[in-house]
Amino acid sequence: MGDNGDEWEYERIGTEREKMNVELSFHELRERLAQAEAWKKRRGEIEKELASVWVEGGDSPEPPSYAAEGAHEEDAAAPAA
User: Fold this and answer.
1) DSSP class of residue 67?
2) Is residue 10 included in any domain, yes or no?
3) C-alpha–C-alpha distance, residues 79 and 62, integer Å
4) Residue 4 within a domain
5) 28-49 pLDDT, tens digit each
6) Cβ(61)–Cβ(54) below 8 Å
7) pTM score
8) What digits encode the pLDDT tens for the residues 53-78?
9) Which residues form the domain of 23?
10) Closest residue by Cα to residue 14 from 1, 5, 23, 27
11) Structural domain count of the chain
């Protein structure tokens, strides 16, 4: 609005500058999206490393007995499909 509130100022929208900013944003988003699969793969690798337990000799220990028993109890408690 103008100084007295009774005038209008016109502003052109969709200028080349605005279009360039939008295109730049799209370009940045496309680059980040292209990296998403690599990030997912790396996350899986990290989770796998964190899930493994290292013991002397490099072997993984046997799961505790209660872990195996719990799995059987859950299977028995689940209704048949």
Assistant:
1) H
2) no
3) 29
4) no
5) 999 999 999 999 999 999 888 8
6) no
7) 0.40
8) 666 666 666 777 887 665 555 555 55
9) 16-77
10) 23
11) 1
Helix/strand/coil for 68 = helix
57 DSSP assignment: T
Give the Cα-Cα-Cα angle 12, 13, 19 (nearest 5 degrees). 130
Q: Phi/psi class of residue 14: alpha, beta or left (left: φ > 0; alpha: ψ in -120 to 50)?
A: left
Tell me the C-alpha to C-alpha distance, in Å, between residue 61 and each of 40, 45, 48, 68: 28, 20, 15, 13
Length of the chain: 81
* The amino acid at 47: E
Shortest CA distance to 9 belongs to which of 21, 1, 17, 19?
1
DSSP label at 59? Answer: P
Residue 22 identity (one-letter amino acid): V
